[in-house]
Specification:
Blueprint: H1 3-30, H2 34-39, H3 46-58, H4 61-73, H5 75-106, H6 113-120, H7 131-163, H8 167-216, H9 219-228, E1 237-238, E2 251-252, E3 255-256, E4 262-263, H10 266-273, H11 283-291, H12 298-326, H13 340-348, H14 351-389, H15 395-416, H16 424-448, H17 454-473, H18 487-504, H19 510-524
Antiparallel strand pairs: 1-4, 2-3
Helix pairs in contact: 1-8, 1-14, 3-8, 3-11, 3-12, 3-14, 4-5, 4-12, 4-14, 4-16, 5-10, 5-11, 5-12, 5-19, 6-7, 7-8, 7-14, 7-15, 7-16, 7-17, 8-12, 8-13, 8-14, 8-15, 9-12, 13-14, 14-15, 16-17, 16-18, 17-18
Length: 525
Amino acid sequence: MNAKTVQILIAMIIYMAGVIAIGIVFAKRANKSSENYFLGGRTLGPWVTAMSAEASDMSGWLLMGLPGVAYWCGLADAAWTAIGLAIGTYLNWLIVSKRLRRYSIRANNSITLPDFFSNRFREGEKNSKKVIMTLAAGFILIFFTVYAASCLVTCGKLFSTLFGAPYIAMMILGAVFVLLYTILGGFLAESASDFMQSIVMIVALAVIVIIGTVNAGGIGAVVDNAQSIPGFFDFFNQATPVLNEAGEQVVSNGSPVFGEASSYGVLRIFSMLAWGLGYFGMPQVLLRFMAIRSENELNRSRRIAMIWVVISLAVAVFIGIVGRQVFPTEHLTSTDAENIFITLSTSSLPPIIAGFVMAGILAATISSSDSYLLIAASAFSKNIYQGVFKKDASDKQVMTISRITLLVITLIAVIIALDEKSVIFQVVSFAWAGFGATFGPLMLFSLFWKRINKAGAIAGMISGAGMVFLWKLVISKLGGIFAIYELLPAFIFSSICIVVVSLLTTPPSKEIEEDFIAVKENVQE
């Protein structure tokens, strides 16, 4: 390990020590009760709510996956995805946040997403089984395990690239750190550290895009280079790297070789914009809406969140474009392209500063993975263990089960992340579609349609999740119009199933309708 690497490591250790300190500070408060541990006692302020929601949402793909897509095939995929996410963020804060905050309290003070859906339809009353709670918790476990795996892939790529160490060893090291931190501090520590990490992330993005643009010869040089590649700097066409038999991009006379641009039609644009639909079912964001100390602060949080999101997404995309000018032949596969942020950082900055910028990637990874692990653990310990199997379980027992669950989920995520060739963007896109289609339509109909009933809710979750798997693994292979992002058809199918099944089955009870009306009237005041 040379002197440069040592300095980078020291900077990252300092950063990690700060994150651990936050966990220690909040550990005592977090462990007072399961509500404090899983929802922070509904005490989050507007800045922490906004910044932690977006930091936990974006994860390592913002600094590695999104720039990697832009570097590999140009503007279109990355830009339309970013636009969809920005629109989805705004609409989620605008129409969902306030009503969910109030409804979660009305619904028996729900502290997890499965809690809310189950209490919304008054499961458990009149000896009814908690089917919605069990299904919701199960789907959270499945998709968050995949999500956590994407974060571990990020950790492995980051550390192996920086220090030349084996990918698997570095990935496991990252998993251990995230696991210990999540067990220590719970939701409060996670939210507080996410606030700090959101600042680190946006500073890291800004620093690299400025330094990278200067090294590239200015914005004019970056744009000229991008325009020289067919379809690379175009919203309606996409660049096509020419690959050799080994799957690497061909290099000729020191330049990467691209074929003719491929058309980027309206269907593909809507497919990428559909990323925005995922927000309506994203537990790590929805929980922040439930945890804010006052619904009156949500408007301020929305403005803060939107400024952060728009700047971060735009800069992340442009970093990939800049990278093509500065290092045109450095990354010759789509997997390796996701390291362009690391390459720009370590080559352009003094080692100690580069270390803190690298901490931006670590920040993004930690802020997401601790959210994913904590929500998945709460889904099992609070909603399945206590909600279904042992209803008289004490808070202490729930906390113990949650920590065991954290360990098991982390082990499964490690197994999924063993493949070093995993593309972060693709792993995240599948989990994102899973949550968006499983919970997105259900959340919107639960908040805004009085006629939805328990049968419709169950049908919506099962059909949404099932269609994500079916479309991704079977239908998309047909190509053509079927090769769209699985979230869009799955979201539509889930919505249809909710409406049809609800209308064909018994209307919700008078008590459920009274809850809905009370929440609606209060929100409109």
